[in-house]
């Protein structure tokens, strides 16, 4: 691919443009808000001048509700050899394009499974998609050339291509993205009017559960409106679990011993099913999930502390598999949790102690 046109220069469009630019592709940027395209240009994501002739690939990264319209305009104007979109839902845009009577052989629906809770070009980065799945939904009618252009884009973004049927994709993302998003919002909504004294106690657990609730509601209304059926089915299942859990908790309040045992069994059931689901969440690089051990280190909230810990771990020959930071409430300190292979725990602990770090259990 030598040239590309990104239409919609927000988080995803600008991130893809930055990745393509870094691989030497000439990228043109367009957005219905020219300010967004100017910002993306200033970030080095390409030029906001229109291409002189057809580009190799047009990438539509507008909100889902606008995708079919933007694609239809682009395809009718013949601005590219191949067209793809990156919308979070795939069945709806394809059906809309079909209804508009367009020849879909030059179009491929795609979805990078990577993003952030922030929008706009300023949140973009060239490595946003690195190591993440990028779903492609070709049909029998898709031109091989267009599929190859999409594979080239995915490879330039260092993502991992995954081929799926559009409707199967929509059911899958309802499960792993859309329903969890709503549940996160519902948990976070409980905090809105909570007392300050309670909110101050927030720890890592609630931070993890509510992180995605910070996302732009307009974008998510678009996404959920394009996938309401599968999301409603899953939420109904969650709702059934909620009803049973409330009943079990009420039973735990009973003075009747047998009822309390029943309640306890109900709670255990939901927690155990949660364990069984959680272990299926893929690990690093999409590999099978692995159990890492945690080495917890207390650090001062000062520049250079993390760099020093990582360097000390590196000198000890220990690979840090993952890392989390828990910030202490009301103190200029944090707890860094270094996730490592179990056999590396004694080596890392000894090396860090020797260099004066405070290890916590
Ligand atoms: N935010 C995320 O984490 C992910 C989003 N997606 C999908 O990527 C697409 C873009 O999302 P973001 O980059 O997050 O949104 P964003 O809000 O950061 O950017 C969207 C851009 O599209 C522009 N736009 C809106 N209507 C337009 C139109 N008619 N013509 C041209 N440009 C138009 C907006 O001005 C904005 O610059 C959406 O379809 C979304 O479903 C896919 C994967 C992850
Ligand atoms: O923030 C996260 O962890 C996400 O999962 C973001 C995300 C949002 C929308 C998508 O279509 C894909 C990924």
TrEMBL record:
In this chain the Prephenate/arogenate dehydrogenase domain maps to: 2-279
Q: In terms of domain of life, where is this protein from? A: Bacteria
* Enzyme class label: oxidoreductase
KW Oxidoreductase (keyword) present: yes
| EC number(s) per entry | 1.3.1.12
Q: Which reaction does it catalyse?
A: prephenate + NAD(+) = 3-(4-hydroxyphenyl)pyruvate + CO2 + NADH
Enumerate the spans annotated as ACT domain.
294-361
| Pathways involved | Amino-acid biosynthesis; L-tyrosine biosynthesis; (4-hydroxyphenyl)pyruvate from prephenate (NAD(+) route): step 1/1
Tell me the GO molecular function terms.
Answer: NAD+ binding; prephenate dehydrogenase (NAD+) activity; prephenate dehydrogenase (NADP+) activity
Q: Does the keyword NAD apply?
A: yes
* Alphabetic keyword roster: Amino-acid biosynthesis, Aromatic amino acid biosynthesis, NAD, Oxidoreductase, Tyrosine biosynthesis
One Gene Ontology term of the biological-process aspect is: tyrosine biosynthetic process
Task: Cite the PANTHER family for this sequence.
Answer: PREPHENATE DEHYDROGENASE, PREPHENATE DEHYDROGENASE [NADP(+)]
Member of which family?
Belongs to the prephenate/arogenate dehydrogenase family.
This chain's protein is named: Prephenate dehydrogenase
Q: What is the lineage of its organism?
A: Bacteria, Bacillati, Actinomycetota, Actinomycetes, Kitasatosporales
